[in-house]
Amino acid sequence: MNEESVGVEARQVWLKRIESLCGERGLQLTALRRQILMLIAGAGAPLTAYALIDALAQAQGRPVAPPTVYRTLDFLVENGFVVRVESRNAFAICDAPGHHHHGVMLICTKCGTTAEVDNHDLDALLLQTASASGFRLEKQMVELEGICERCERLGPL
Amino acid sequence: MNEESVGVEARQVWLKRIESLCGERGLQLTALRRQILMLIAGAGAPLTAYALIDALAQAQGRPVAPPTVYRTLDFLVENGFVVRVESRNAFAICDAPGHHHHGVMLICTKCGTTAEVDNHDLDALLLQTASASGFRLEKQMVELEGICERCERLGPL
DNA sequence: TCGTGATGTGTTACAATATATCATTCTAGC
DNA sequence: GCTAGAATGATATATTGTAACACATCACGA
Predict the structure, then answer these.
(1) Which chain B residues have a beta carbon less than 8 Å from that of A125?
(2) How confident is the prediction along chain A (157 residues), in pLDDT tens digits per residue?
(3) Does residue B152 have a pLDDT over 90?
(4) CB-CB contact of B68 with B28 (8 Å)
(5) What does the alpha-carbon distance between residue B73 and residue B81 come to, in Å, rounded to a whole number?
(6) Geometric angle at alpha carbon A63, from A58 and A65, rounded to 5°
(7) Is the distance between the Cβ of B62 and the closest atom of strand C smaller than 7 Å?
(8) Which residue among A10, A89, B46, B132 is buried most deeply as judged by most CB within 10 Å?
């Protein structure tokens, strides 16, 4: 359906980055966590927890229970390695790993791919918008749905 | 837990506005739809579908099945009378009813209340951010979590 | 008047997403 | 090796959402 979202080499670089962050922070990048990271990175689009459960069961030849996967996802999200796409109940790689998520998620309704973009002005404006209402901002979620460039080019159908 | 989000009179005005929009557009504001609108409007915070199911069962003295409620919510969301809060799987009134939702949702993590604010600059910036990536924007979801002014004033606890 | 189609609601069954709880295993550091 | 904390396994269940079909109502033209 989709080409892979990141090339194999890019994925390796990205994983290295996460490994080193884990080193710095004293976090354990266990086999399971690594495996889930690579599954998400290798998918062309965000994966749901249950898609991961299936993929893991496939890969390991035995069932993996939901709590196991959700816990791992919690870890990955908390540490900014993965982002939860709220409007899809799915998880995507965070391509500025380690920062707490702070970007805009562009979600193509045709092919399902997502792209993350950062925009400092936008962040500032969101903060200002919140402050103007006396609201102390702690976490932002910006998800935009539409048609990605590639699908737009490929035309209708 | 919460005071009501809108006073009774304000709620009436708001319902009138929706009634007239339905008139203009040839939509039927049936008893069930009206009842669900009022339940959402009367709650201090967004309601989940199942909270509505319970409330309706209470009010009507007989069970109401999920599809009934979800269909009604679909109608209300499609027509811009209610907004779905993605990060909470819940539904809140849209206080510029009839426009397709386009605002920023401020969600207090302490008391659970939400407030909707519009910001034209923000919309423009989002559109620009999407365009810059060749993305054709169709729908935006901006949800900000934090502490609302009231909870901030009332202090820790 | 009688269809007939469009719309809204009821009902049953089930699918998909997520969490609570307790048991077990692993690992780092002593 | 021991032990405390972290990570994972396992079972059960809670929460959120849909598919599919039946029934009811109403407007409108034959």
Answers:
(1) 119, 121-122, 125
(2) 445 556 888 899 999 999 999 999 999 999 999 999 999 999 989 999 999 999 999 999 999 999 999 999 999 999 999 999 999 999 999 988 888 768 999 999 999 999 999 999 999 999 999 999 999 999 999 999 999 999 999 976 5
(3) yes
(4) no
(5) 9
(6) 125
(7) yes
(8) B46
How many whole angstroms separate alpha carbon B132 and alpha carbon A139?
24
Bridge partner list, B116: B105
Q: How far apart are the first and last CA of chain A?
A: 14
Q: Which tokens hold the place of B137?
A: 């924007």
Name the residue among A4, A80, A70 with its Cα closest to residue A40: A4
What is the pTM (predicted TM-score) of this model? Answer: 0.94
* pLDDT at res. A78: 96
The verdict on a CB contact (< 8 Å) between B115 and A106 is no
- What residues contact residue B46 under an 8 Å CB cut-off, 6+ apart? B40, B85, B88, B90, B91, B92, B112, B114
Whether residues A139 and B139 touch (CB distance < 8 A) is answered with no
Question: How far from B3 is each of A44, A130, B44, B150, CA to CA, in Å?
Answer: 45, 21, 6, 11
A82: how many CB neighbours lie within 10 A of its CB?
A: 27
Please state, rounded to an integer, the average pLDDT across all residues of chain A.
93
B136 → closest Cβ in A122, A135, A146: A146
